[in-house]
Amino acid sequence: MPLEIACDESGSxxxxxxxxxxxxxxxxxxRLSVEEAAGCLAELRRxxxxxxxxxxxxxxxxxxxxxxxxxxxxxxxxxxxxxxVYLVDKKLLLANELRALAGPGVPPDDEVLAAFNDVLRTxxxxxxxxxxxxxxxADTIAGDITExxxxxxxLREAKVLDPLVPAxxxxxxxxxxxxEQVFLVHDEQPSLKGERLARIESSPGLAGMEFVDSxxxxxxxxxxxxxxxxxxxxxxxxxxKGDAILTxxxxxxxxxxxxxx
Length: 261
What we know:
Blueprint: E1 3-10, E2 24-30, H1 34-48, H2 57-61, H3 66-73, E3 83-89, H4 90-102, H5 110-121, H6 128-140, H7 145-158, H8 164-175, E4 182-187, H9 194-201, E5 206-212, H10 218-238, H11 244-250
Parallel strand pairs: 1-4, 4-5
Antiparallel strand pairs: 1-2, 2-3
Protein name: NAD-dependent protein deacetylase of SIR2 family
């Protein structure tokens, strides 16, 4: 029997990596049985005592539920040693792609990065956005602009910026490292289709994959809790507002392959 892992993401905005709603993308996988996950949700409900029909990560992140959050992430919590979180600093991902394209001398300027992000997302090569980026490139980036245009076109077709597919591939790699085949139960992701889905399905170590409504599977609900609090903790840390205790509690879950400065 393959190892069943329940997954969810937080902070996904497709290829928009700068100027969006979130600075961090997070993807989590948990190894729990349906019964164990249901028990975890029941305990969270008992401790939080909210009348809400559906509990989300925001319930755990409220100051009045701090002890519940510490329990959930802590060594006596239900997911300790049984979960993996993959983090991506979106701006760092974008800067790395630009440096790989145009050289290490590229200034980490938000305006340049935003223009680069826009030019990779647009499907219209005559879009004024594209002209804006290449105008900046002529002043700030060394190298031939014609060659740069060709490289940008290749990157645009490859759709390298959306971290969701790499995160899922990493989850498969992580959980199959012991030699077991992995079956992923993932929250619904309408953007995963065609070549992107085929890339995941051809991953070594993957026995299969099923997309479900998170409300129907308690394991995915637990993954939703974990990934939501992980993204918020990481984002606070990234923006200089980190909580040392929560950051330390999250640390054992963080995948070593995370793109994190």
